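User: Could you check the structure of this?
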Amino acid sequence: MTAPALPLRLKRLRLAFMAQTVEAQNAESIRQKHSYLEFLDALVDGELPARENKGLDKRIKAARFPLVKTLEEFRFDFQPTLDVNLIKTLASCAFVAAKENVILVGQPGTGKTHLAIALGMKAIAQGYHVRFTTIQDLAATLRAALADDTVEARLAEMIAPDLVILDELGFTPLDRLLADAFYRIVASRYERASVIVTSNKSFESWAESFPDAVLASAVLDRLVHHAHLVPILGDSYRMKDLKNVRKGGAPKTKP
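Assistant: Sure, the predicted structure tokens are below.
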């Protein structure tokens, strides 16, 4: 038997898995005639993966993904023009280590958000801190922050992570507050941390989303320098599902 207070002391040391398993491991070590070091080694072997899994879950929650999407779930056969080798290279997260950017451009429903989240998940698995937001949610956050004077704090949350994903640029025009914030996020992270941007507009059309062309050019200049461009030229998955249903088939898995 272990000392009654030992699990409590392990909890106070934030060794939760060891606290839960110390009694069982002690009994097993007695049966196996383990040495003290072997007993301790077995406890630590259990604590490490438990702590790593807990850290992984914490980073996924902090990323604020709308849904968890993986690269393994992505239907590459629906997008035959997509550069699969480039996606697999990006999945190594060397671009995060190099502080480079990724820009996913394609029409709505082509899988841009899925790929962005999947790359974010790969980064999280490697220990990086990731933050996801749509441009629309960022706008709502900033407007709310104006009321309680926390704009700088909200911007800091988008500047600090190793990888920030800015989703759906181009769906709606950016007002001055959002455009300035977008520029500050990109400029502050330039050559310091990575950004993934998804957009339904080509670079030439980005100026249409910004209050003025000069600001659009300044953002684009910093984003495309050290960037990987991923064009997605295929059709919408959602439209393919709709056509399939109309023909009497079952909807296919979405990206």
